[in-house]
Amino acid sequence: MPVNYIPRRFxxxxxxxxxxxxGACVRQCSNECHSFTEDGSSVFSNSNSCVAxxxxxxxxxxxxxxxxxxxxxxxxxxxxxxxxxxxxxxxAETGGVLLSGMGTPxxxxxxxxxxxxxxxxxxxxxxDPLREPMxxxxxxxxxxxxxxxxxxxxxTVKMPPxxxxxxxxxxxxxxxxxxxxxxxxxxxxxxxxxxxxxxxxEGGLHPDLLDYxxxxxxxxxxxxxxxxxxxLNNSRIVEIKIGQGAKPGIGGHLPGEKVNTEVSNARMIPxxxxxxxxxxxxxxxxxxxxxxxxxSIKQATGNEKPVSVKIAAVHNVAAIASGxxxxxxxxxxxxxxxxxxxxxxxxxxxxxxxxxxxxxAAADQRLRDEGIRSRVSLVAAGSFRCSADIVKAIxxxxxxxxxxxxxLIAMGCHMCQxxxxxxCNWGIATQRPDLTKRLNPEIMHERVENLINAxxxxxxxxxxxxxxxxxxxxxxxxxxxxxxGLNEKELEILGIMHAGx
Amino acid sequence: xxxxxxxxxxxxxxxxxxKELLSKNKAxxxxxxxxxxxxxxxxxxxxxxxxxxxxxxLACYLNGxxxxxxxxxxxxVGNTMGGGEIIIHGHVGxxxxxxxxxxxxxxxxxxxxxxxxxxxxxxxxxxxxVIGSSAGxxxxxxxxxxxxVLLGLHLSPNExxxxxxxxxGMHGGKIFVRGHVPAENISPNIKVSSLTADDxxxxxxxxxxxxxxxxxxxxxxxxxxxxxxxxxxxRPYSNLYTSF
Lengths: 501, 244
Known about the structure:
The structure holds two protein chains of two kinds. Chain A is of the alpha/beta class. Helices cover 30% and strands 15% of the residues of chain A. Chain A contains 16 helices and 21 strands. In chain A, helix 4 packs across helix 14, helix 8 crosses helix 10 and helix 11 packs across helix 14. Chain A starts with 9 loop residues before the first strand and ends with a strand. Chain B is an alpha/beta fold. Chain B has two domains: 74 residues, no CATH class; 145 residues, Pectate Lyase C-like (3 Solenoid). Chain B is built from three helices and twelve strands. Chain B has an eleven-stranded mixed β-sheet with strand order 1-2-3-4-5-6-7-8-9-11-10. At the A-B interface, helix 3, strand 5 and helix 7 of A face strand 12 of B.
């Protein structure tokens, strides 16, 4: 209908001199942008459904393809931007809630980019990690209030369950259903080889991943998909999902189209049925109720698994974190609002929650003020783009970080933000067999390992530069941080001084 | 030997029950005063007989075991249970059978709010919840599979058989209701119909078991008509979103 003008986003540019009409692009594009002419002699493109995933560009043997942003100018208006007008058109047409994938693309402040790290000069020598020992081993779990030892020096305190990680980087929750089994398997293999953990999300543990249960965080969410005694025990950590940074206060909803035989087996629901995981757990209305669920999991696992509680970074996150610690959580995960997702209502993703930097600093400070910081490990999540972000998070008080988008990019993701459509050309956010087979776990786990190994080395380099040889000495060490271009309130919440101070 | 709970902490009581069940298949627990998590993840072949008032999360993650409760239960009985049987000679609180995937729960009297929330079935796993008297609000909320039977026995005058928002968000399974169905309390996405021959056969087995557990007269119970509540669509939210 003419009134419903939504311009396309991209244009596929085909260099006719280079194109050999081999049809690779036709076969690769699940959005059906490319087709052969009727006589089969050449290939042409219809750019309307292009999402700029670059699959065709990457696989074109002659480099004939290029994606360009399509610009159709509107009369300038800083308030009524083309984006808002187009969204209104779409809603006027469908009456639907706008849905998108990945984290918010809005230009909110990224505090990582406004925090600078310290390095040693003259007085406190820096350390070269290539020749000297550098410890990034991270141990998650509740620590006892005090340690008592017998005469021979052996501890007499019964330690709560601890998890040893060889890196402070873990892979955040992505369920089988939201991502493909091959993608999850790649992460599981990488986690095992790296000595860290992957997270099943709320989609259950597929039988193929049972070999990796020692490095699995299994989630319990409100829909309780796939949760049973063996699932809880086939894990390293059990995580109660209360909220997600990309969509605080909103539940999960895997549409029936994505529930094929394999997904149905892992989630233990019939094929084709919607998997609805609403925002509230209806057995949790208070901190006391959360305590009840935490301890029910501890009872079911013989007190052998640390129980983690994942919350979204929201306005009163510090008080909530304190409540979670008092409820008996061994680990608290705080997920910032820039975090990714397989699908989230656009309005929620772009408007609800707070940045992880502020939430983490506030929660760590609150727990320290209350003298209960050692009772819990703090894990930060919500968009870590590089090793420097991780180092800054640890210095702000995180024990470890969850990242997901970065390993997905290592596996081929180009941030086209259409995970929710289930047509991922890279075989990540899809269940279509012809697409998932494009992702080979045997290759992809190595790329993910390369990424994290590179980050590990960078973390060691940065720590060495500060004259710090153990990640434990970096944790909560805010003296290593300085703000740049931040106002006094921001510095106060982050608990850091301004550059030059 | 039996375990006496008394006023001891739940962890001590549950440890003692577990120890008892190492060598035996049945444990009897007396003088229970709200201790939580009794029968948590109890395996197939094991039985716990409880006398008193069982605390929250009775038989959570039940793994095929059997629970006999002579007294009342509290909240979240059979939370996320994966199989087994729970027989309650009394009434229970909120969120009965939350997310239960298999097994059967029989409650002699009433249940409070959100009974059977998130019940779901999978292949040959079909959870069953039988309630003798009335249920509170949000019965069968988000229900995705399995069967709830609500008998409405011994209702007081003007007492409704279920509270408001019955079957809100239900997208699978069925609820059998005996006698008068308060239409004003049913969520809009639910249809009320008569029972098919297969339904009647299924229902009869559950009612028979209920009557044998609690000494009711099956003919008297079956003498009133039953109605079936099912969702109009299995995809209630399929048109909610538009990709952008």
